Amino acid sequence: MLWAIVFGLLLTASAAWTLLDTFVLPSNIVSMEKTEDDREGKDSDVFYEEPVITDTSYHDNDISIEISQIRKYDTDIYIAEVILENPSYLKTGLANGVFGRNIVDTTSSIAEENNAIFAINGDYYGFRTSGYVMRRGQVFRDSISELSYTEDLVIYKDGNMEIIDEIYTSMEELQEKGAREVFSFGPGLVENGEVSVSKFDEVDRSQEMNPRTAIGQAGPLHYFLVVSDGRTKQSPGMSLLQLAQVMQELGCETAYNLDGGGSSAIWFNGKILNKPTTYGKVIEERSISDIVYIGK
């Protein structure tokens, strides 16, 4: 009898530790390094005009951001059109500035810590233990994804985007080609201007209609960053196919699905613009691993 009680306690403790290690306790922490890319495009001899900022736009010598809101698929969709003079202004940020499991913070907090002008949530690398992760040229993980999708978004140092398959492309090859950022959520939505998902595609463990986040490229240093609401009475959300169609209609030649659901968030000028649905019940930001942002 005593042995059974002890065994039960050990089993309970083991299960509790596994849950804490997976979802709560920080681990595998690596700091994000400063790179030469962080200093590109900053010339002290150039005269910079004061930015012109409204509730839906930002304009200066180097950065143009226009934000609009549309209603499509019975859902509120937020669209940021971004045009840059230098690829280094398209950046990524990590929660607390470090890579590691269970290192999380809100999109708002990470954006403010990085002096961002505009931001969306990233691919929540910390919710997975596999899949390529590169940020600002620094490789944090090079193991192939265990999820059904192995498509990654690569952003090169010249600002151009490409969708690759981890099975056929090594991290070393991406480094040799000049990759700066690699995201491994997926899947790809638009390739060579054509929608690359079908109505049967969906992210693992996800329902069909969801809040969504996507990033795409329409031309040289010309991007669209898109977030939709979802899981509310006002906005049910979108399928991957519907998201891909939105990105194609915007003119994207390449577009990629980032983390959605309760993670989806769009931040500008100090506030969240959408209605994040944490756990599908409460309208508030979820704490996540990383963001994509525009800044200097």
Overview features:
nine-stranded antiparallel beta sheet; 4 helices; single chain; 15% helix; five-stranded antiparallel beta sheet; alpha+beta
What does this 3D model show about the protein?
This protein has 296 residues and is an alpha+beta fold. A 9-stranded antiparallel sheet has the order 2-3-4-5-17-16-18-14-15, covered by helices on one side. A 5-stranded antiparallel sheet has the order 6-23-8-19-20, with helices on one face. The chain is globular, with a radius of gyration of 20 Å. A hairpin with a 4-residue loop joins β11 and β12. The chain has one domain.
- Provide the spatial order of strands within the biggest beta sheet: 2-3-4-5-17-16-18-14-15
The residue fraction in helices comes out at 10-25%
Mean pLDDT: 88
Q: What are the secondary-structure elements, in order, as H or E?
A: HEEEEEEEHEEEEEHEEEEEHEEEEEE
Q: Classify the beta-strand content into a percent band.
A: 35-45%
Cα(first) to Cα(last) distance is: 66 Å
* Number of strand segments: 23
Largest sheet: 9 strands, antiparallel
Structural class label: alpha+beta
Count of helix runs? 4
Low-confidence stretches: 12-20
Radius of gyration: 20 Å
Shape: globular
